[in-house]
Design brief:
With 454 residues, the chain is mainly alpha-helical. The chain is built from 18 helices and no strands. Helices cover 63% and strands 0% of the residues. It binds fe (ii) ion (2 copies). The site of one fe (ii) ion has 5 residues, from helix 14. One of its GO terms (molecular function) is ribonucleoside-diphosphate reductase activity, thioredoxin disulfide as acceptor.
């Protein structure tokens, strides 16, 4: 069987690219499709340059250039666009292949690089690094300025699992034969909320946050975090598939249930505010917006809403129900606690380095809005209590955890006097294992000690 090197999962192809290491007895010249494409493209460019300069007056160089640079490598309509903008290039419009732009640009970039003489650079001074707005070398990991970020990365790799490691057979039986309707309502909506949220969390860290970091040790952990968010999404999908829930219905709930949609909209608004292409973290307003957004995502979205979001399923687990799903969520929760801690630490570092002073009204608004959304969500989730868990428990636990996150952020407690309504939650989430099956995974992966939760 011969692999298709462009797509190893595709059906094997009959046209074989020679690979010398696979046939050492023959003298073979390795010619790849890419090399052929590039050679043909370069030849075509040279032909077109000649033809264009023959067909148009020398003074029309701007138009000739625009033909070269406005053409799109992937745009099948690029020829018709040229016909629409110039009355006389009918003949030439079919002579410039889509590969023109790719070859032309790559050749120009290579030439630009070759024209610069190599100059050895000064060694990196780690003290010059900054979390954002730094001018250091983003490609050089060490020496570290933020060794704690590297430690986060090392520790994150100790919490490795896949959803396939956990036996879900009993959950299928529990869901269909043991759960009461109100418990199924809780279970389904916890999954519906979490799966939409984790996609959003992945986009936030991967698209809005990571690109703004200017110290590679921070990006390394965030790259792991992006993967973990994707892994969490896989986990929810695995639960939804295994239980046999209607995928379309579950994934659409955030679009039709206002109490779920409200939380997603709040997060989307924060995300969109810092994904603007014109955001400039050297400007105080933009910088404050970014700090507030990262504080929201790490302290509330991950630190409160996710943390609190798992607890209804843990309440079922305590009664011996949906234990497979709960164990999946324990692994996710462990990741999320690290995401929360890391994000809060980065936020504090930025505030210190950039001398950021947040408006207390913005902070108060953030907590109040988050609480109102959580109250609405909990009323939808638990219109009637399930055994061992009520809407009031959920709300009070949110306030209690919010105080914990605020202290970590160096902020005042937003809800003084809030009680620990679920005193079993921290211990539950700390993954004490009672089953032999799970001990196996722990022995293999959990080489680190128990995480601290505060
Ligand atoms: Fe996640
Ligand atoms: Fe996360």
């Amino acid at each position: 069987m011969t692999l298709n090197w462009d797509d190893p999962l595709a059906t094997p192809i009959s046209r074989v690219q020679s690979r010398p290491e696979l046939d050492r007895n023959k003298s073979v010249t390795l010619i790849t499709d890419e090399a052929v494409d590039q050679r043909e493209a370069v030849e075509q460019v040279e032909k077109n340059k000649t033809k264009l300069s023959l067909e148009y007056p020398a003074s029309d160089t701007h138009f000739v250039q625009s033909l070269t640079f406005e053409d799109s490598a992937n745009d099948p309509d690029s020829g018709s666009q040229r016909r629409a903008t110039h009355p006389t290039q009918e003949a030439s419009s079919t002579q410039t292949p889509p590969a023109t732009l790719r070859a032309s640009l790559s050749a120009r970039r290579r030439e630009e690089g070759e024209q610069k003489p190599f100059t050895p650079m000064k060694p990196i001074n780690s003290e010059d690094k900054r979390v954002i707005n730094g001018l250091g070398d983003i490609n050089q990991l060490a020496p570290f300025k933020y060794p704690w970020a590297w430690e986060f990365f090392i520790n994150a790799n100790k919490n490795h699992w896949t959803p396939l490691d956990i036996n879900m057979a009993q959950d299928v039986h529990d869901y269909h034969h043991k759960l009461k309707p109100e418990e199924r309502h809780v279970y389904e909506n916890v999954l519906a909320y979490l799966t939409t949220s984790d996609i959003l969390a992945m986009r936030n860290i991967g698209l809005a946050v990571m690109e703004k970091m200017t110290a590679p040790e921070l990006q390394i952990y965030q790259a792991r975090q992006v993967y973990e968010e994707a892994l969490h999404t896989w986990t929810y999908q695995h639960c939804i598939e295994t239980i046999g829930l209607d995928q379309s219905e579950i994934y659409n709930r955030y679009r039709v249930v206002p109490e779920i949609n409200q939380k997603i909209q709040i997060a989307n608004r924060r995300l969109n505010a810092v994904m603007r292409s014109d955001i400039d973290l050297r400007q105080p307003d933009d910088l404050q917006e970014f700090v507030l957004s990262y504080a929201f995502f790490s302290g509330i979205f991950e630190g409160c809403w996710f943390y609190n979001g798992f607890s209804p399923v843990f309440a079922l687990q305590r009664r011996g129900l949906m234990k497979g799903t709960a164990e999946q969520l324990q692994y996710i929760m462990r990741d999320e606690v690290m995401h929360c801690s890391f994000g809060i630490r980065v936020v504090r570092q930025i505030m210190q380095e950039e001398n950021v002073q947040l408006d207390p009204r913005d902070i108060r608004d953030m907590w109040d809005e988050a609480e109102a959304a959580e109250v609405a969500y909990s009323k939808f989730l638990l219109p009637t209590p399930i055994l061992g868990y009520s809407q009031q428990d959920h709300h009070e636990q949110f306030r209690f955890i919010a105080n914990r996150r605020a202290r970590s952020l160096g902020m005042e407690e937003p809800f003084p006097g809030a009680k620990n309504a679920l005193p079993w939650l921290d211990e539950q989430s700390n993954m004490r294992k009672e089953k032999n099956f799970f001990e196996t995974r722990v022995t293999e992966y959990q080489t680190g000690g128990a995480l601290k939760w505060e």
